[in-house]
């Protein structure tokens, strides 16, 4: 089959592409590379023009304030139009999200419309914020969530605008249009699946694919200093609950001194990010989640001990009795306790790291995950 994967977040579609290609399919990714992360795509529609200088960035911001329109969107649309002949006649067009190009709704709708018109079947992935997910979090969800920081004040609420914006009419209409046109909606993890309990087109969760051939077991067996890594992306700082990790690390540093090494990296391109935690024993991924994010899964593939989602909700959804992840909860004392145990029992770090890689090989291998997608491609419509 000819398959067009639309949009890229954190390597999600690149890893799935690897599996699909191994199965003999012709696969193309179109997207903007996910901003500063610069993930590879086959057809690039992103633009960094307005980030080349302080002046150009200010022009973009000023124009948006004056007109409500994003000049960068116009460049993306122009690049999309230039590539239209390469975006036709696929058997499957799969959208990573209802806002896969990260444009304002009117511009996004033009791209969506073209892709739906000129390709055979479409599938929507529940991966990242969208209308149904945002609606669920604001109206139904009980428990901690990515919106918890809104209780801290107006500043935090403004920082979480990215999630709330999907409740707007344009984003809502684009989402509902894509759901209506798509043959199914596939949730990529528990967090997104929870919001789809009443969605008739929702399938069972298909876990994120990991290209395991890219990663080797990379255990740091020098346990004299326990290396802890925290990666920060300011764009999702509040929704991931990074502030809990920061507070916990302050306590750990005072408590253990030179027994620990703490590395904090901020807003790195993907390739630099992967290299920056190579010597880490422990990786702190995110707190306000119920499943593992993509960074967590790739770190687990390398044998790192990861703090991320791994609660009873996760275990039940995936029909597992245990998972080699430290379930990160929004409780600083709890996080300190879990970190302290690992620092004081370093042998657990090695055994957990090995189990983490085995888990990824068993449940997230890109070829096996691609087979699950392939069944939907072949059996639906």
TrEMBL record:
Q: Which domain of life is it from?
A: Bacteria
Which SUPFAM superfamilies is this protein grouped with?
UDP-Glycosyltransferase/glycogen phosphorylase
Q: Mind telling me what this protein is named?
A: Glycosyl transferase
Source organism of the structure: Nonlabens dokdonensis
